[in-house]
């Protein structure tokens, strides 16, 4: 008989009740079918055994099962199980044509039917495989022998699929860990910023309280002096108020006094003191040494502004220091280098930031 369909696979989701699966496509023997149950959660597959896990009724038709049949399962699959039935014919040819015998039309047609079904079987394998599009000009691509826990990628010429150098799962896990660490660092920085803002608010409240106390003890009038600061006069004969801009200039002047010009340094350790800006010109092998812990929990900093004639010094390997981008920078021999060190535990450990300044 003719083969009028190109399908060879049936799939059915269980319901915990139904034990039959209708297979409507032609096949020749009971062993031509494969029955598999798939767990839809884990995607684990179990190949069922004919006569134990399922049965197929006998047939008296010389062509086998030209219209398919009904398969009976030993137990009803649940709703999390998909049953797949597909045809898997052996790639053999068992028809013989004895000389001088009448032409066996039925037997010949059965052979043609099997060839057609085998073609459909191969087409099913091709359709489920990775392949290039019909418009692709690529051919002859080979795949390396597999290596456990490696991924696949094209080589640099795009002519072969090769194994990756690293385990993709491990790379992803490390990236996820670093992302979590970055998120934690950002959260810590946010908390530090909030703490700094709260400290600034407390300082402003203290200034206001001090100003009110001064007014209550006969000190200079605070009328019209909103947001001004009160300080002792330089000759210690009384008090005076200063505007915000005047106060800022005074603070700037104080900070400028903490700038330590280091001149030219050719060797040895470069001692970085607390809350200090040091400048220097480096001409030899040197090492940056932040000040030892002072036991304080307040944020402290040191900044080093320098030029160098060699990108290898001063050494960027600084004890108890973590660089912002995860690795020490490459220094520039042109223009100004700036290294900013900040500690949140009194100098026990440091975070370092690098910037390449102008000429």
Q: What is shown here, in short?
A:
This protein is α/β, with parallel strands linked by helices. It has 3 helices and 20 strands.
Q: Helicity level, as a percent range? A: 10-25%
Number of strands: 20
Cα gyration radius (Å):
42 Å
The neighbouring-strand order within the major sheet is 13-15-17-19-20-18
Unreliable stretches: 254-258
Report the sheet-strand fraction: 25-35%
The CATH architecture category of the domain at 9-126 equals Sandwich
Structural class: alpha/beta
CATH topology of the domain at 9-126: Immunoglobulin-like
- The general outline is elongated
Average pLDDT confidence is 85
Largest sheet: number of strands, sense, barrel closure: 6 strands, mixed
The span between the termini is 90 Å
Number of continuous helical runs: 3
CATH class of the domain at 9-126: Mainly Beta
Helix and strand sequence? EEEEEEEHEEEHEEHEEEEEEEE
Structural account:
The protein has 359 residues and is of the alpha/beta class. Among the domains are: 9-126, Immunoglobulin-like (Sandwich), CATH 2.60.40; 254-356, Jelly Rolls. The protein contains 3 helices and 20 strands. The chain has helices at 105-127, 168-216, 244-257; strands spanning 9-13, 20-23, 33-39, 45-47, 54-55, 69-73, 81-87, 142-143, 152-154, 160-163, 229-232, 239-242, 259-265, 268-272, 276-282, 286-290, 300-308, 321-323, 337-343, 350-356. Strand 19 and strand 20 form a beta hairpin. The longest helix is centred in the middle third of the chain and has 49 residues, at 168-216. It is elongated and about 135 Å long. It starts with 8 loop residues before the first strand and ends with a strand. The relative contact order is 0.06.
